[in-house]
Amino acid sequence: MAIGITTNTVQTDGSTVSKGTNITGFSGPVVYDKGITDAAAVRVLKQQFGDGYEMRIRDGINNVQRKFSLTFNNRTKADVDNLHQFFTTLAGVDTCQLTIPYDGSETAIIVVIEEFGRALTSDNYYTLSATAKEVFEP
Question: Cα 81 from chain centroid?
């Protein structure tokens, strides 16, 4: 396993592929820049009672959901275009695989790319940023 983004089941052209396949146009996982952020959102059901008492319970089995902010700085226009097209094909519905370093090893997480955008940083180099939300699938 290598750190970066790979496919889960959908490729850039919309075809079905095996989990962990490289994204079209790349010879390996697309490695994000150092300094990704990992923020957790906790889903809790609450009931407030008139006397100030509050009851709380976890909302679902996987009630802690993580979001990752990823950046791909100073990449060639072709690389950013390929990655942008891949995210566009996923359309926030289909998933991809994000591998991150965790406790001295690497962990693969299934994510949806909720937001993404690119910026022209110089004549031939672009920057792409994306937000990846962890999802739980059977």
Answer: 17
pLDDT tens track for 75-129: 999 999 999 999 999 998 999 999 998 878 888 999 999 999 999 888 889 999 9
Q: Which domains does the chain have, with CATH numbers?
A: 4-134 (2.40.30)
Task: Give the tens place of pLDDT for each residue, 42-81.
Answer: 999 999 998 889 999 999 899 899 999 999 999 999 999 9
CA distance linking residue 87 with residue 93, whole number of Å: 10
pTM: 0.85
Q: What is the DSSP string of 53-109?
A: -EEEEESSSS-EEEEEEEEEEEEEHHHHHHHHHHHHHHTTTS-EEEEEEETTEEEEE
**Cα–Cα dist 101/89, whole Å:** 26
Query: β-strand 125-134 against 64-76: which pairing, if any?
Result: antiparallel
Q: Which tokens in the block code for residue 52?
A: 């100030």
Q: Is 87 left (phi over 0), alpha (psi -120 to 50) or beta?
A: alpha
